[in-house]
């Protein structure tokens, strides 16, 4: 990260202390920054040398607001938010139902002045993107904010993209795109000089036609639109690459070449309603779609089915899923069998704990290719990389980096994944890279894909235990996971 970028992030984030004292959360602050930076950039675009028609009505621009103070500033800002929420394109979607969460007029003035001093348009999209991504990460690091719902470790995202190797003039979807991390990593890969040289047509396609996304949470959706806009994806007044709403409700109609996604964690989908006695009740939400193999209230299982639907017959996918997808019975077993039969589920990456903002999460990345329908089982063998056993990360003291995933990418062999070599052998039982024949997987109880073979050193050697902070972190993760499971069970029993 450049010094300029770091300085601006520090400035912008320095306002958080006073705002939090006023009861403004990190997420709310980030939302207000989204509105204000957008206004400032639009103002810059409306002036020479650009002289663009920004679509912002006269009297509701940055210039109409940036010299005001106190109650006048608050009133003008409020009226601008209301007015822009009525407009079309990305503009209206970003400002829809927007309200001012900064009740302290003096702090609002300081934020406006801070943004006013920077020339946002003349910054490269890389710098602007870095600033916004930096703020998103800081927001996500604040566990209390719950921002982990839309933040996947960037090192993992980049590794997934490198393995999938998306090509120019191809389409990419993320049906639960959060702040747009997968889109930005794909864009970075496609524009990297060592990968491709893009002509005018390719650049235009990348900007306006490559990405298809969906996001359920309104605030996160706005953050995503702003993030994409700052990275030159989509058109400010035209094409909006991301939709707001529940992706699982229906087949969206489009078919894409690649799917890169991390569906939300949590086993069940439910809706809350009020019964005749006036009491609130939860009811499992089951999606009855003709394109699904089976019905389930498990969100991850439904997302797997949805992803299959939106993939072209030659499509490729990389999907983060929790462990329960690999071993759960019932609908889980049906979906695993169908996945092995109808796609080439060629690779599973077992992820370590301590890399997500929700404690105790055990997750994996499934890599599979869609195949044209045929009588034979499409998966012949599944390669598994165990990056969990005897691997320990923490979010702050020991975060996962790109280097940590380099060996997996090397084993995956993205240039030609059909030319792979196991690192596991009889004489190397701790080798992390191993293949399994599909017939052996079908023979396992419930067609379980929860496969591991490396001995846990902490269990085998009591004289060589991990560091106390690692042990403490593991204990906390396991306790949190157990509590979550009990809470889910109690919720089911109390319905």
3D architecture notes:
With 495 residues, the chain is an alpha/beta fold. It folds into 2 domains: 3-124, Ferritin; 134-457, 3-Layer(aba) Sandwich (Rossmann fold). It is 41% helix and 13% strand. It contains 18 helices and 11 strands. The chain has helices at residues 3-13, 16-21, 26-45, 70-84, 89-95, 105-116, 125-141, 154-164, 181-191, 200-208, 218-230, 299-310, 324-327, 331-342, 406-412, 438-442, 457-460, 468-493, and strands at 172-174, 211-215, 242-244, 256-261, 270-274, 280-284, 311-322, 343-350, 363-370, 381-386, 433-437. Strands 3-2-1-4-7-9-8-10-11 form a 9-stranded mixed β-sheet. Strands 5-6 form a two-stranded antiparallel ribbon. β2 (211-215), α11 (218-230) and β3 (242-244) form a beta-alpha-beta unit. α1 (3-13) crosses α7 and α4 crosses α6. The longest helix is centred in the last third of the chain and has 26 residues, at 468-493. Residues 143-150 and 270-275 have low confidence and may be disordered.
